[in-house]
Amino acid sequence: MSINGIFPKTDAGGNPIHPDRAAWLKGGNHKCQMPPRQPGGKVWRIVLLGAPGVGKGTQADMLCERLGTCHLSTGDVFRFAKSCHGADLSPVMAGALECMKRGDLVPDGTVLDLIGERLRCLNCSGGFLLDGFPRTAAQAKALEKLLESQDLRLSAVFDYELPIDQTVARLSGRRTCAGCNAVYHVASRPPRVAGICDHCGGKLFQREDDRPESVKVRMEAYQKSTRPLIDFYQQRGLLVTIAADGSPEEIYKRTRQLALEG
Ligand code: AMP
Question: Quick one: 124 and 92 in the same domain?
Fold first, then answer.
């Protein structure tokens, strides 16, 4: 199974033109066919915070392009497991995907095992950009310990903020390409032909967890479990708060000005 369904950047011959994240998506002893390029300057180790739908994934792609870091999304690991293993999932992974479908958080123990199997990615010489992890206080504390044990330090935590009604509108209009995972929005970023991906001609679908009943659960989980991490990282002097309204390019420009330049 190709990993391009999760990380789509390939040339016409299907060769990756971007880090393929095999070590992250597959875990264990898997190596990246195409690791991130070595950054010329500072190595960034960043955590992205923000409610589901706020646009973290899009910002992550833009930031990785510029900083040479790898996009480490825990949600992508679960989606990859689902697309690869289908009916052969381990009971733990099957349980995790059930949580995901409902919009609930996967138990901390499962997530931390998954991170433990991917410690090499935290040590990657290109740095990293964590998206979707940590999501609870227990995960944040565990990450802090893990990084300490590896003698690594976070560079910054970017918290993307958007009013909740706008976040829900972004999530419920989001459509994803089944072929290359490109992301569209029915109103603000529609494809040229409805339901069809501009890049690869794949069919667009709505993620199970973007349906209204799951969106509500995800928002509640964010408010209850993830929002407290803002204080956690503020106390450590790592937090950068970024308004997430406007186009992806506008948000990216703000991120650069607030966190990367100067
Ligand atoms: P995301 O793509 O980050 O929105 O993640 C999709 C779903 O995967 C979430 O709604 C959760 O069910 C699950 N998930 C991803 N990362 C975590 C995490 N760090 N802790 C708990 N559940 C997670």
Answer: yes
